[in-house]
Amino acid sequence: ATKSSSLTGALRQPSWDGTVTQAQLQNLSLPQESRNVGGTRRFRVFMAADAPNLSLCKSVMSSVALGYPLPILLNWKGEFNRPEWHLAGSHIAKLESLHAAIEALLADPDDIAHDDDLAVLVDSYDVWFQLPPSVLIQRYHQINKDADRRIRDQWRETWRDGDDFPIAPPKQNIVVTSAKDCHPGPESGSHPHYDHWPQSPMPKFMYGPGTDKVSGPLFDSARKYKRVRPRCINSGMIMGTMGALRAALVRSKEKIAEAERTGRQLWSDQALLGEVIGDQELWREWARHLGATWDGDAAGHPLSGGLHRDVAPVARAALREGKNFEFGIGLDYAFSTIPPTCSAEEDGDFVALSDHKQVEAASERAGVVDGVRVRGVPTELLDTTPNAARDAIKYRDPLRDIAWGNVPLYTDFFFGTTPVGIHHNAYVDNLKVWRIDNWWERMWFHPHLRRLVSSHLILPQTGSGVRPIVRVANVSSDGVEVVYVPPASESQEKVVTVFEPARDVGEEALFEPISFDGICQKGKKPWFEELFGDKIGPLAL
C-alpha cells in the first residue's frame, strides 16, 4: 500500500475510534533528524528593518561592538499593505522574508550554508546586545539540553513501555523568547491553544505567595502580569538551526495561505508562530496519549479518552493528510537570551556583578522575596578552554581584557540572570521610548563603543581566516567539538547586507551591502554624534 493509503485506511470508516496501528505510526510524517556532526558551523544574525533610524543603528552597533556577525536586514524599504494580511503586514513579512533568505542561503551553489548552521532573528528597533555571541550560543544549547531532558522525562512517565514505541520524544532545535502574558488570544482571530502549552519549569514560589496570579489593577495591561512566570511566546528573538527554522517557517507560510483563503484575521508574527507552537503541543499531547495506550501492535483507543477535543483535528490531519506538526520549538523560560522587559519593568537594573552589596541592594529594591539570586559573573564568560584562549590571542579578541564583573550589566534579579540582550518593550509610563533615549549611555560598552566597533570591523590578516566565535563540546552526535564561525564572506568584507528576494523565476536572491550612513542617518543631526557621544566625528577604520 502507498503511504497515503496506509495512513488513511482507518479514517475511511466514519466510526473511527482513534486506534492507530504500528504501520500507521511508523508512517506518520515526522521531522528528519539532522546529522548533527561536529566541526565548523556558521552563525548568522537577521534583523527586520524597513528604513534608517537611530534605534536601528543602536541595535546594529551593539551587536558589532560585541563581535556578532554583521546582520542581514530583511524587508528593507518593504511594502506591507497587502489587504489579506490585515493588521500584521510588517510582522508577517518578517517571517516570509526570513524563510526566503534561509532558502536562498541553503540553495547557494557555493555551499555557503548548511542545515546545522545557526541563525537568530531579533527585533531591530528595540533590542540591544550586552554579552558576546559566545554566551548566546552556549545558552541556546543549554536551553535545548534542558528542554530535551524535560520532554524525555515527561514522555517516559506517560508511556506504559516506551522502549518499542515507534515515536521518539522530540528534540528541541528552535528557541523563542517567552512572555508573561499570553497575547494575542482567540479574540484576535488566532488560535495558539495556550491552555495546552507546558507550564513554566521555573520555581513555583518565584514571585512569592502570589506567583502566577494576575494582580493589581486589571486595566494595567503590563503590571498585572508582573508575578506570572513566563510560559507564552514573545517573538522578539527566534533562534535555531537553519534546517529547523526552514521547516517551521514553511508551516507558517501554510498558515498564512490558509488565512488568506478564509479571510481570517492575522494579528502578528507572534500570533502566527504561536499557532505553529500550539499545533505542535496538541500533536505532542496526542503522541503521549498514543504512547500511554500502546500495546505493541496499536495505540490510541479511544481517541476521546482523556484527550481534549482540540487534539482530534491535529490527529486526523496527521493521519489523513500526512501533515507534520513537530518542529522542535521551545521557549527561553529563564530569561537568559533576549527577554522582553514588558511586565518586568522594575525587576532589573544595571549592576556590577562582582559588587555583592550593589547586587544585594538592587535585589531588595526589586522586591526579591528570598535574598540575592544573582550568582556573580555568568559562567559562560569565565569558562575558557585552552583552544578558546588561544583563539582570543591569535585573533586579537577586542573583548578579551574586559573585567566582566566590574562593568554595569542589566540583570533581572528575580531570575538571577544577566541576559544576553535587552528587549525594550516595557511600555508602562512610556518607558520603552524613554529607555531607548536615555539608557544607551548606561550600556557597559558605551565609553568604548567607537574602539570596539572599529576593532571588530577590521578584516582578519591574510590567510588567518575568520575568528571562531565559540567552541562548544558535547552537542554533536559524534562527540566532535562544534566550532561556530561567522559567514565566510566576513574574511573579505565586514558589512551589513540587505536581503533582496528573487523577483521572478530564474532570478537569484541578492545580499547587497549597505553603509552605516544608510541604516543610521535620519534627520539633520549626524548619527555618529548621537551614537558615540564623543565629539570625534564620523566612524573611521
Automatic annotation (TrEMBL):
<protein>
    <submittedName>
        <fullName>Uncharacterized protein</fullName>
    </submittedName>
</protein>
